[in-house]
C-alpha cells in the first residue's frame, strides 16, 4: 500500500510538472485555478518594456528605385524603407557609378549606359547595421533613324 501511494504521488507530481511547470512562461495557474498570462519575448512586462529583444527591434532596410531601367540620362528616385533599430540612423547610398549620398530618399541621374548595383547601408546608435541593394539598368540609347520606317 505504501509503495502504491508513493508511485501515485510521484505520478501526480510528474503530471503536475508536465502540465503546469513546462508552460515556457506563457501561462501559469493563478490563485483560483484560472490561467494568468505571463510575459514572453513578444509581450511587454508589467513595466511596459519588452523582457528581451524582439524581431521588430532589429534594424532593417529595404531599397527601391523608380524607374529601374531606361535610357540615359536616367533620373532615378531611390527609397530606403527603414524599420526597427535604436536612436538616430545613419544612411549611405552608393549608386554603383562612383558617387554616393547620405540622403534617405535621394534622386540620382545616370549618364552612361550600363548595369549598376545601388546599395543603401543603414546603421543606428547601437552599431547595428543592415544593407540592401537594387539593380538599375541604363540602356544604350537608340540611334536616330532606327525604329520608325
Defining key terms:
single chain; 149 residues; mainly beta; three-stranded antiparallel beta sheet; 10 strands
Short structural summary:
The protein is mainly beta. It is built from one helix and ten strands.
Task: Describe this structure as you would to a colleague.
By secondary structure, this protein is mainly beta. 13% of the residues lie in helices and 38% in strands. It has one helix at 2-21, and strands at 27-29, 35-37, 60-66, 69-70, 74-83, 90-94, 100-101, 107-110, 114-123, 129-138. The strands form three sheets. Strands 4-10-9-6-7 form a five-stranded mixed β-sheet, with no helix packed on it. A three-stranded antiparallel β-sheet has the order 3-5-8, with no helix packed on it. Strand 6 and strand 7 form a beta hairpin. The radius of gyration is 29 Å and the shape is elongated. It starts with a helix and ends in an 11-residue tail after the last strand. The model is unreliable at 1-52 (pLDDT under 50).
How would the blueprint of this fold be written?
Elements: H1 2-21, E1 27-29, E2 35-37, E3 60-66, E4 69-70, E5 74-83, E6 90-94, E7 100-101, E8 107-110, E9 114-123, E10 129-138
Parallel strand pairs: 4-10
Antiparallel strand pairs: 1-2, 3-5, 5-8, 6-7, 6-9, 9-10
Percent range for helical residues?
10-25%
Rg measurement, Å? 29 Å
Strand-residue proportion: 35-45%
In whole angstroms, the N-to-C terminal distance is 106 Å
Query: Describe the biggest sheet?
Result: 5 strands, mixed
Mean pLDDT: 75
Apparent shape: elongated
Order of helices and strands: HEEEEEEEEEE
Q: Which runs of at least 5 residues are low in confidence (pLDDT < 50)?
A: 1-52
Number of alpha- plus pi-helical segments: 1
Structural class: mainly beta
Total strands: the figure is: 10
Spatial strand sequence of the major β-sheet: 4-10-9-6-7
Amino acid at each position: 500500500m505504501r509503495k502504491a501511494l508513493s508511485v501515485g504521488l510521484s505520478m501526480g507530481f510528474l503530471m503536475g510538472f508536465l502540465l503546469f511547470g513546462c508552460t515556457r512562461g506563457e501561462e501559469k495557474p493563478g490563485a483560483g485555478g484560472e490561467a494568468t498570462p505571463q510575459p514572453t519575448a513578444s509581450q511587454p512586462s508589467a513595466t511596459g518594456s519588452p523582457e528581451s529583444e524582439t524581431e521588430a527591434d532589429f534594424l532593417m532596410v529595404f531599397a527601391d528605385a523608380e524607374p529601374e531601367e531606361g535610357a540615359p540620362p536616367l533620373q532615378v528616385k531611390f527609397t530606403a524603407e527603414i524599420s526597427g533599430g535604436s536612436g538616430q540612423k545613419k544612411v549611405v547610398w552608393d549608386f554603383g557609378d562612383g558617387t554616393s549620398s547620405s540622403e534617405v530618399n535621394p534622386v540620382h541621374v545616370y549618364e552612361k549606359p550600363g548595369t549598376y548595383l545601388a546599395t543603401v547601408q543603414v546603421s543606428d546608435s547601437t552599431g547595428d547595421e543592415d544593407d540592401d541593394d537594387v539593380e538599375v539598368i541604363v540602356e544604350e540609347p537608340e540611334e536616330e533613324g532606327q525604329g520608325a520606317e
